[in-house]
Write a structure and sequence with these properties.
138 residues, alpha+beta, five-stranded mixed β-sheet, 5 strands
């Protein structure tokens, strides 16, 4: 089963592959700039997981959030195209990871607009399957 860090790293690589963002980083590892004024940016973080089942092996639904920011005065790319591209970079994919289900984009929400900077949050979910614990009984 992949770790949160491994999943997040694969998400970052997939988003970087779109070429739509000058900065793609984990919020757990990088201090987010107060304002993204020079380049469009995407920040990834693990939000939560919820136990979904445990009959044969534990299954958790994991929530990862991507916060995309664009400075409308400097961005060469259409904002809607970019959030569609971001969604498509993960939607229906496992990114080469095992013991997870394909990512699903659960929501895309505008979360900020100030001084020409527009911000969207995209929530992606995947199920992860943990190994069967030794002596597993419930």
């Amino acid at each position: 089963m992949p770790t949160i860090r491994e999943i997040e790293d694969k998400i970052i690589i997939a988003i970087q592959g779109t070429g739509d963002f000058g900065l793609v980083a984990s919020l757990a590892l990088v201090a987010k700039p107060i304002k993204t004024t020079e380049i469009s940016s995407a920040f990834v973080y693990f939000e939560k997981d919820i136990l979904q089942g445990e009959k044969t092996r534990p299954v958790y639904k994991n929530y990862f959030v991507v916060v995309a920011e664009y400075y409308l005065g400097k961005s060469e790319i259409d904002t809607y195209f970019a959030i569609d591209s971001l969604r498509d970079s993960l939607q229906g994919k496992t990114l080469g990871l095992t013991d997870i289900t394909p990512f699903i984009c659960d929501s895309r929400t505008i979360t900020g607009f100030e001084e020409g900077i527009i911000q969207y949050s995209l929530v992606f979910t995947t199920n992860t399957y943990l190994p069967i614990p030794t002596g597993w009984r419930r």
